[in-house]
Every structure is written in C-alpha cells, then in structure tokens.
Amino acid sequence: MDAEITLHVDGTARHVTVDARTTLLDALRERLGVMAPKKGCDHGQCGSCTVLLNDRRVITCLVLAVAHDGARIVTAEGLAQDDHLHPVQQAFIDHDGFQCGYCTPGQICSAVGMLKEAEAGWPSAVSDLAAAEVRLSPAEIRERMSGNLCRCGAYAGIVAAIQQAAR
C-alpha cells in the first residue's frame, strides 16, 4: 500500500509517495536523492544513516518513512547556515575527525544530537549521576557516540572534535 507523505528535509518540504514498508533511509536516498545519510549495515548497527529527526538523533534504517509524515529532518548537509559550517562540522575538519568520510555525516548528526542531549542533562551509562551537570569527558563522549562506528578508526579525532564543539 502506497502513502503520500511530506518530509521537511534540510528546510525544504518534500512530497513523496512511498510503500508503507519503506524505511526513512530509503525514502531519503532512493526517492528524494538525499545522499548525506549513508546506507552502511542497514540493520541499525553502524550509525552511518543517522540524521536529526525533529531535533533528535535517529538511525533512519530502523524507522518507517510513513511514521514520520510531516517530520523535520536535518542531515549533515543541512547543518551549515549560509556559508558558515556548523561548529561540529568545523571541529571535525580542525581535528581530522574523518578519514574515508563514509560515516562522517552520521557521526556529525549524532554528535550534534548528543551535545543537545548532554546540554539538557540527559545521563548516559557512564554519567556521574551525583554531578550537577553532565561533564563531557572522553569516556562520556565515547559512550554517547558508541552507536556510530568508524571503520577507519578516526575516533581520537572524533572525540577531540566533539570536545571542541562542546566548548
């Protein structure tokens, strides 16, 4: 059964007809030509398809497009404003937070979402619950980003980039 939905992708309303079983990732890539989210494992294990969905990070290969009719989606391409990179994007460049770049859009979106979660005081598995606020130590960042894998092993640069952006 097909359904017509509207997705607001990087600030633009996009209308698309999809089969009810179509993942958000496939709707973005195959139906709308949005190439920032990458299809890695297609099982929710690598995080390369991560976007911000209504300001929350979401692994798009695990959600159905029809469930998000009218949603606001921001990809790594939509984070920049005019000619200015988002602070997380700039930090990834400054700290060589990528090598091949395949996972980078998902890593960047996840980092932006993770920083919002930490700012809101959401704890992680390694958070000090007695502390008044979340302290983004390298261990805290690694835990919060653990759903995003990098086959090249650029983790040191990714952690440094997120620490810079958090400042």
TrEMBL record:
Transmembrane segments: none annotated. Keywords: Iron, Metal-binding, Oxidoreductase. The keyword Transport does not apply. InterPro entries: 2Fe-2S-bd, 2Fe-2S-bd_dom_sf, 2Fe-2S_ferredoxin-like_sf, 2Fe-2S_ferredoxin-type, 2Fe2S_fd_BS, Aldehyde_Oxdr_Iron-Sulfur, Beta-grasp_dom_sf. Residues 3-79 form the 2Fe-2S ferredoxin-type domain. It comes from the Bacteria. Pfam families: Fer2, Fer2_2. SUPFAM superfamilies: 2Fe-2S ferredoxin-like, CO dehydrogenase ISP C-domain like. The keyword Magnesium does not apply. CDD domains: fer2. This is Xanthine dehydrogenase YagT iron-sulfur-binding subunit. It comes from Kibdelosporangium persicum. The lineage of its organism: Bacteria, Bacillati, Actinomycetota, Actinomycetes, Pseudonocardiales.
